[in-house]
Specification:
Helix content is 37%, strand content 14%. The protein has 305 residues and is of the alpha/beta class. It has 2 domains: 3-24 and 218-304, no CATH class; 40-208, P-loop containing nucleotide triphosphate hydrolases (Rossmann fold, 3-Layer(aba) Sandwich). It has a 10-stranded mixed β-sheet with strand order 3-2-4-5-1-6-7-8-9-10, sandwiched between helices. α1 (3-14) packs parallel to α11, α8 crosses α9 (250-260) and α9 (250-260) packs parallel to α11 (286-304). It is elongated, with a radius of gyration of 25 Å. The protein starts with a helix and ends with a helix.
Length: 305
């Protein structure tokens, strides 16, 4: 960042008059629609939203011809629970969506591989729910073009998934509760949806959108951020005013917004946070931050008085 650009951004910050008034935005769902004979192979740990997502998927796509193979019959008490012995009978499964819940416990590798490779000829859609990447056999892994993953998993889970499928590291999305990642294995690209099935990130364009459940207040008194958090904060702040939130000024604009909207950071702590933050940014010299701190504190008094 050049000296002139730094000076201009500092000047813009000093003359900043505040963010626009809050507007309640309608959440636009991007429903993950069913496409003809598209299999869903969904991986995720317990309590990460696998079953809920699939139930929503079935409901939204009005899937009537459903055969369920599972161990927990109470979970699918409204569905046609099928005998596992019939899973290798493609004529029996013809024109149906076949749901396998907890495949790892049932050990049905051959049957799953058969459906993946030949199911399209019988108009069979497979929905496969599994806790681990190893629940899908190597043969089946080599024949799938797309997988789905829940977001709220452990780093180890994402590490294992990365190694088994040779995909990118997805652990940056582990803080998103009940989200879904749709990964195209052929293109090595993916889309992330939040819990309301709104698209929030597309790796092919590197575009980050604001989650429907994004809470800017959760960053109160926070100094460091992951790359994903930083992108979401920047997109959020820039959507609220005609500003360019560069990296050195992220903390300043974030706290300006929080104060303007009723949050009360610890000002003594924040002063030191800001000083440390700008000290660590080589683009700024100490003399540049002094007027920023001053205007920030004056703005705090004006907003909270």
């Amino acid at each position: 960042m050049t000296k002139n650009k730094i000076s201009q951004e500092v000047n813009d910050a000093l003359n900043f008059k505040g963010f626009n008034e809050e507007k309640v935005e309608e959440v636009v769902e991007e429903v993950i629609d069913r496409t003809r004979n598209s299999h869903i192979l969904l991986f995720g740990g317990s309590d990460t939203g696998k079953t809920y997502f699939i139930k929503q998927y079935i409901k939204k796509n009005n899937i009537q011809n459903l055969k369920v193979f599972c161990l927990d019959r109470e979970e699918w008490d409204y569905a046609d629970i099928a005998d596992p012995e019939r899973l290798n009978d493609l004529e029996y499964l013809k024109n149906h969506t076949v749901l396998l819940d907890d495949q790892g416990s049932m050990k049905l590798d051959k049957q799953v591989a058969e459906i993946i490779s030949k199911g399209r000829h019988f108009n069979i859609q497979l929905i496969f729910l599994a806790h681990l990447s190893t629940d899908l056999s190597p043969k089946s892994r080599n024949n799938v073009k797309e997988i789905f993953i829940t977001t709220g998993n452990s780093p180890k889970f994402f590490h294992d998934l990365k190694n088994k499928f040779m995909i990118m590291d997805l652990s940056n999305f582990s803080h998103i509760e009940y989200g879904i990642i749709r990964y195209n294995l052929n293109k090595n690209s993916f889309i992330v949806y939040d819990k309301n099935y709104k698209k929030i990130y597309d790796s092919s364009t590197n575009k980050v959108s604001i989650r429907s459940d994004f809470d800017i207040g959760s960053f109160l008194n926070q100094q460091s951020f992951t790359d994903l958090e930083k992108s979401e904060i920047v997109n959020f702040l820039e959507s609220k005013s005609n500003i360019n939130v560069s990296d050195p000024l992220l903390l300043y604009y974030l706290n300006y917004y929080l104060i303007q909207n009723g949050y009360k950071p610890n000002m003594s702590k924040l002063k030191y946070m800001l000083e440390d933050y700008y000290f660590e940014n080589n683009a700024f010299k100490s003399k540049n931050i002094i007027p920023l701190i001053k205007i920030f504190k004056e703005g705090y008094k004006e907003i909270t008085s």
